[in-house]
């Protein structure tokens, strides 16, 4: 494949990826995590970092988005566009890593195409969160790693150290990918030296890798005390449900077919259907390159990057508070698609290879269309629809009282960014206390309305409740009379419906 053709194909794939991630970018309502991003970047950088330390994530994504917002604003379109940009970079990263790891531009193009149309990967670009940025660092750090190993280069391992440190500052699940990268280096060194310890110690790659690792440790060291404090906070209380026997197959199913309504999961059916598919792909990848020694290191690295983060997440979740959640494995899941691309590239008969690529692309497009139809965004206006309704019907002095922090911050986002009425909306809290995972790090005193505050409300009040997140509706005082009630469904089942009640204070 010529250089010119490769460049044009990659440009076309990136353009397709951006288009697939942009056409619906503002249709779905902003949800709690995205509104967390929006509110956090309103604070000065020093305050932003301090408030991030009180949450459960590191600060780099928020700092970058704040810089982006200085130029493009903080609307849902602007914030989600940053994720789309990172998604475009991750497509380039998929090409760069795969073409290097398997010494095949064609494999790189196939991998880029698979990620471009994957509905599971597409979904992350539609959120103002850090996942597409993390994917980008996962791919480029892995590229630097494989280059460093092959060239025995201190320079490439220095690049790796910087990228790995940046990855850590984006999301803590980067640690699982970084651990997988370290394990892959060890496996590759054992393979190259046939396990001879003396040769390993003398191998230039070992010392280059150690220097790269030390550089990464030096760069992340200032944040480690905050990370440990955040970890302790999560162990005390967090929202992630317990790991079950079906958690892993559910995740693997959603990697290929994103859905909130899984098929029949009776018994071990999900494991029988899903795990063999993924494991077969990965094992075929390993065995398919067993005789091709110049790409065996890339095969090992891809295999480990796809499997080890899942294994670590499962192990930790079984031994302590569960940390297992589908979206936290975004950085590992992309390597499943890369493994599939490398496997398809190994098909020697061109028609069969083209057919295999077409099957994967068509299946992904079908799964994306299915997922989009399932979301039914046109009939799920959520918080956005609720705030539009209130903004068009409220009097200029009407108060807006929200009963749950999980919808208060999205409501505040829309009232400020679209309707310039953010001072009208308040969060009701009898004691004024929020947990660290329900908005405490981003809350300010003016957000909360106490029982004493609402006793002073007069005339019209708009009460906004949610049936999701296990929340309870606001119990209106006896002298509040309900005039009307409207319901605005959200996209996902756990989000429930947004219920708007117009009240008259008697």
From TrEMBL:
Its placement in the membrane is given as:
Multi-pass membrane protein
Q: Name one Pfam family in it.
A: PMT_2
Compartments (UniProt record)? Cell membrane
Question: Which keywords appear in this protein's UniProt record, sorted alphabetically?
Answer: Cell membrane, Glycosyltransferase, Membrane, Transferase, Transmembrane, Transmembrane helix
In this chain the Glycosyltransferase RgtA/B/C/D-like domain maps to 57-224
Where do transmembrane segments lie in this chain? 68-95, 107-124, 130-146, 176-193, 205-224, 267-287, 299-316, 328-345
Question: What InterPro entries would the database entry show?
Answer: LipidA_mod_glycosyltrf_83 (IPR050297), RgtA/B/C-like (IPR038731)
This entry carries the following GO cellular component terms, namely: plasma membrane
Molecular function terms from GO? pentosyltransferase activity
Tell me one GO biological process term.
Answer: lipopolysaccharide biosynthetic process
Q: What is this protein called?
A: Glycosyltransferase RgtA/B/C/D-like domain-containing protein
What organism does this protein naturally occur in?
Answer: Candidatus Andersenbacteria bacterium RIFCSPHIGHO2_12_FULL_45_11
């Amino acid at each position: 494949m010529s250089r010119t053709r490769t460049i044009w194909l990659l440009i076309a794939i990136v353009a397709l990826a951006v288009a697939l991630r942009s056409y619906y970018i503002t249709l779905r309502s902003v949800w709690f995590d995205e509104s967390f991003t929006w509110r956090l970047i309103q604070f000065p950088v020093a305050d932003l970092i301090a408030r991030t330390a009180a949450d459960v994530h590191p600060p780099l994504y928020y700092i970058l988005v704040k810089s982006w917002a200085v130029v493009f604003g903080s609307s849902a379109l602007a914030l989600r566009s940053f994720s789309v940009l990172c998604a475009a970079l991750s497509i380039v990263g998929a090409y760069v890593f795969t073409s290097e790891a398997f010494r095949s531009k064609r494999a790189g193009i196939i991998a880029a195409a698979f990620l471009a149309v994957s509905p599971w990967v597409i979904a992350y670009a539609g959120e103002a969160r850090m996942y597409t940025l993390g994917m980008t660092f996962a791919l480029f750090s892995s590229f630097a790693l494989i280059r460093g190993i092959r060239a025995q280069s201190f320079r490439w391992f220095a690049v790796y150290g910087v990228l790995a440190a940046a990855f850590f500052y984006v999301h803590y699940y980067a640690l699982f990918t970084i651990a997988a990268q370290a394990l892959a280096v060890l496996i590759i060194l054992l393979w190259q030296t046939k396990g001879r310890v003396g040769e390993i110690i003398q191998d230039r790659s070992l010392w280059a890798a150690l220097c790269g690792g030390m550089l990464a440790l030096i760069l992340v060291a200032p944040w480690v005390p905050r990370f440990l404090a955040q970890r302790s906070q999560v162990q005390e209380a967090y929202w992630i449900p317990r790991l079950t026997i079906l958690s892993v197959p559910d995740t693997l199913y959603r990697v290929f077919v994103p859905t909130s309504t899984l098929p029949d999961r009776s018994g071990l059916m999900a494991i029988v259907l899903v795990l063999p598919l993924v494991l077969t792909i990965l094992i075929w990848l390993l065995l398919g390159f067993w005789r091709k020694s110049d790409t065996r290191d890339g095969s090992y690295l891809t295999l480990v990057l796809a499997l080890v983060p899942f294994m670590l997440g499962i192990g930790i979740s079984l031994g302590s508070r569960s940390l297992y959640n589908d979206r936290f494995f975004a950085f590992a899941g992309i390597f499943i698609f890369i493994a599939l691309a490398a496997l398809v590239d190994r098909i020697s008969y061109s028609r069969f290879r083209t057919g295999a690529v077409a099957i994967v692309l068509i299946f992904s497009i079908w799964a994306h269309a299915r997922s989009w139809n399932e979301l039914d965004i046109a009939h799920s206006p959520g918080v956005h629809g609720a705030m539009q309704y209130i903004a068009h019907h409220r009097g200029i002095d009407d108060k807006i009282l929200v009963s749950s922090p999980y919808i208060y911050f999205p409501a505040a986002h829309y009232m400020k960014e679209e309707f310039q009425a953010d001072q009208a909306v308040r969060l009701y809290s009898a004691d004024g206390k929020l947990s660290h995972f329900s908005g405490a790090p981003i809350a300010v005193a003016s957000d909360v309305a106490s029982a004493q505050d609402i006793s002073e409300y007069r005339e019209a009040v708009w009460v906004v409740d949610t049936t999701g997140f296990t929340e309870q509706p606001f119990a209106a005082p006896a002298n509040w009379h309900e005039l009307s009630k409207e319901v605005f469904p959200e996209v996902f089942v756990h989000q429930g419906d947004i219920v708007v009640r117009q009240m008259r204070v008697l």
